[in-house]
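Worked problem 6 (solution included).
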Amino acid sequence: MRFWLASVASKACRLTKILMPALAVMSLASVALAQAGEVGGEANLKLPELSQVTFLGVDGHRLLLIGILFCLLGLGFGLTIYTRLKNLPVHRAMREISELIYETCKTYLITQGKFLLILEAFIAVIIVLYFGVLLKFEAVRVVIILLFSLVGIAGSYGVAWFGIRVNTFANSRTAFASLRGKPYPIYQIPLEAGMSIGMMLISVELLIMLFILLFIPGDYAGPCFIGFAIGESLGAAALRIAGGIFTKIADIGSDLMKIVFKIKEDDARNPGVIADCTGDNAGDSVGPSADGFETYGVTGVALITFILLAVHDPRVQVQLLVWIFVMRIMMLVASAVAYFVNATIAKARYGNANEMNFEAPLTSLVWITSIVSIAMTYIISSIIVPYLGDGTQWWKLATIISCGTLAGALIPELVKVFTSTESRHVKEVVISAQEGGASLDILSGFVAGNFSAYYLGLAMVVLMSIGYYFSTMGLETLMVGYPVFAFGLVAFGFLGMGPVTIAVDSYGPVTDNAQSVYELSLIEQVPGIQSELKGSYNMNVDFERAKYLLEANDGAGNTFKATAKPVLIGTAVVGATTMIFSIIMALTNGLTENVNKLSLLHARFFFGLITGGAIIYWFTGASTQAVTTGAYRAVEFIKANIRLEGVEKASVADSKKVVEICTKYAQKGMFNIFLAVFFATLAFAFVEPFYFIGYLISIAVFGLYQAIFMANAGAAWDNAKKIVEVELKQKGTPLHDATVVGDTVGDPFKDTSSVALNPVIKFTTLFGLLAVELAVKLTSEAGSNFSHILAGAFFVVSYIFVYRSFYSMRIVKEERATQQAAAD
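Solution. The predicted structure is:
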């Protein structure tokens, strides 16, 4: 702990030297802004009085109070499954391993929590400048907004912590259940863990937003929603980036030992395996949980912002706000109903089966949830807003949302075409590797990723086009920018299966960890284990059968981890469109002036479109570089310290050292990336507002296709390796070595760069709400020259961190000689 604090203090001193010029310029900006008057835009959003409209004889405020009860029931659902998982039978050898994994995860999360508070300080400076200096809010009001930004961070952080606790219960219970030789229990336990996380996550997020909506005064609520969204976006971005870097450093470091030393998967003598298990939770549980929490929150805030800016009739505002929140509550109910229906079907079909396709019940869960959600969307809309507009808008709005809900089921099916162990694309990767080794394995994976971007991109366009078509049927009489509202509702519909989307995404880390827990427990070598299991648990154990089932289930986990990623990135991009429109509304005074600047004929707007691509590709390189350098150090340490003779398992000290290496490079990489993005957002906002709009559109579009390509290429490489291991049973062969290389190339593709683009896009857009209004007001008060000086200063600071993201992360081989000399 003292070492960590000293490290943070040292970093803080260095950062202070780097950031002082920019902070000094921001101070000068605050002086100029001190004379600012009133300003329009998102900060001055005022919620209408919800009680002015009645629904089913109940006013809007009281109706939404009932929603709090549903949130509490959702929390109870999640906690009930949590308790059930904790009380499932597990052998002590397996429980010890899962508790060791949890302890390392806990250490990682505590470290990340302290780091998040440092990053929050940067956001706090902007919030104080914007709300306190620019808008001259009273101190109490600014403190409340800061408080809700902390609530956003705490929400992302809290659900991430809950996720790792649930998953580290589930991993050992799944491993133990495999000893019975039946496939159904090892499918059921990871899914229950995922539903526990999903219900808890959505319930907590909705509870916080209802609290703001119902109990915060109307003139405070708008800024509080923005503060909350920025906070959760910051938390998600940091945890996603750092978790993605950590998990792939550990994964690559562990996997490469299979080639170097010809040892088995998750060999207990490999010091990298515990770090790999920690990484499965840091990257595939902590990151997605925080990301999911932020996605649902930010999408809601985007729609709230749009309604308050684009709809002028307060009664219509109330109708749409209440309708949207009732629909969010419906998500919980629909997911719970679908879960129980699917569980009944799956148990009847597979409960006593000796073989099962693990993907089949997960697929049916997604489709049942989609059907239930769509049906409930129409029913609820007809009840809540039957007379909206001309009296037909309820079914048109329901249809628009249903396009997104359908996408939430259709997109996973398209993803499976390119990533499932049953898909022709993945089998093509294996065939390529049989003759061409790692080279053709990698090239074939690139093909799968690129083709997937084509099909998924067109699917999104088609569904958004249908939503747009229905928006032209009368929505223009209720609001300006009605097509953008339709896009926002499509994004909202993407999340119509919220808990289930999170559940199938969380399925993967449990199945992955379950294999590792099995091997690390050395259960087969425990004295008298056969008789102990027979006497205590009435088990006749076939260890080979247990390992086969765990490996087969992991293939399904890989596939469904892949299916959730395009849904989240698609939501980020479509939802960002709604938020960008909110900025446009402020810049054009409600689309009444400067609209001509949203055109290729306005050169700066076009320059912004080009700039966004540069940032996306830099981000991909920077995050991958952090993985590369960290993995090099991890491999270096493991090769020097692994003991294959005379020991059963690696020492705890060596395992913790690998975790320390992963944490070090995850934090270093994340810090460089976050501050580069933070100051780039400020710089581009101060260049010119419409340049910034072009930039935001560009990062959304470039980020969408980059993320889809990388996520699905990585998943194809991963499951190609799984086919070789499970179906072909060729572990330790040159073919296996080739697919392991492909898998390690795909690791940062699918679990670092691609997944982190989602929160980065949303954070940039949300933070841009504040940054661009700061820039506009400063330009009007101090002139464009001063704004451009600030833009230059912020860009210089951003570039320092861009430079550091490679040159301070390079592999310096001389360090090895220094370390060796110190050891001697």
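Discussion: The beta strands are 54-55, 58-59.
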